[in-house]
Amino acid sequence: MIVKNEEKLLEQCLLSVRGVADEIIIADTGSTDRTKEIARKYTDHVLDFAWVDDFSAARNYAFSQASQDYIFWLDADDVLLEEDRNKLLALKAELAPTTDACSMFYHYSFDDYGKVNLKFRRNRLVKRSLQFKWYGAVHEYLDVSGNVIDTDIAVTHKRVHDAKGRNLAIYENKLRSGAELSPRDHYYFANELRDNGDLARAAQQYERFLEMEQGWVADKVTACDKLSDCYYRLGEHDKECKAALKALEYATPTAEICCRLGYHFLQKEQFSIAVFWYKLATDLEEPKEDWGFRNEQCWTWLPHVQLSVCYYRLGQERLAWEHNEQALRFRPQDQRMLGNKLFFEARFKKRGESV
Question: Where is the Glycosyltransferase 2-like domain (predicted)?
């Protein structure tokens, strides 16, 4: 782990892995609160690392201190839930020495009902002897190869605060120093600009990233989605639509892109076209081992709710009711959907129709 001023979060993280890890190594990058005091309750390996505006440097230092056969990493605002803790213990007991790395899901954000909103995979467990390295000053990634196993274990993110301004400052400092940004850096720099509300500059960076030949396909698709969102919020609706459609140059449609295009045509009150895109989103099979960022709303209830709206506006109340029922399967306590259900059923009853 690498940490700084995490006294509010660190204990819950370390409690979740106590008894799983054979050693715990924590590299502190300059805490001024009780972080190191809390860490020492769980390990003697609390080390200082001078912060140099480079997350990879800090992570590589922490990895270099490990002595066990495999290294598992977490952030201070991550936890292993009981089910995933037990799965990791089982994996540890049966892990073949031919395994070079294991990926796990990252449950990054949740809705009001505790359902996962955003998830993706990350390489979490790696063989120490292979000396895999971290790359990237911000939004760093662990470069692995060989025999990689995709597990169903999930690490759960318990974000309390964010570091958007800090991460953006690192990129800005790199640019001021004359450093060249990689294609991946351009993508994540655009994300930071967007998250900090600088939509015009974010759009420029997404456009620049998409012009580059290099870059992960999943990042290209997500960049199109986020670029479309920037243009929507800037009121540039023609560019909004074109950006979403550009994703089809890289891959088959994702539910996120379908919902983006559906919403574009819904806002223009072109309900039949909106139905096409939302219906396509409901027909897609969710990827099992996709490494891209996945908005679970788009793969579950959201297109059904929007289809309910579209069909109602088209005068097809039975189809509107059916899709609201489909949405309720995913969110049975959603008050808006329950209100829709009562609304439709009252109208059917008034007309003497069965439900």
Answer: 1-135
Q: What pLDDT is attached to residue 290?
A: 64
CB 98 within 8 A of CB 129: no
**Amino acid type, 144:** V
Q: Which domain holds residue 137?
A: 2-157
Number of domains in the chain: 3
The CATH number linked to 128 is 3.90.550.10
**Looking at residue 289, what is its pLDDT?**
63
Q: Which of 250, 268, 303 is the last residue of a domain?
A: 250
H/E run at residue 195: helix 183-195
In the chain, % helix, strand, coil (3-state, to 5) comes to 50, 15, 35
Burial class (CB in 10 A: 0-12, 13-18, 19+), 350: exposed
Listed as ranges, residues in the chain with pLDDT below 50 are none
245: Cα within 13 Å, side-chain hemisphere: 8
Beta-sheet pairing, 148-157 with 78-79: antiparallel
Rounded CA-CA distance 271/250 in Å is: 27
pLDDT at 293: 81
pLDDT of amino acid 95: 95
d(CA 154, CA 88): 9
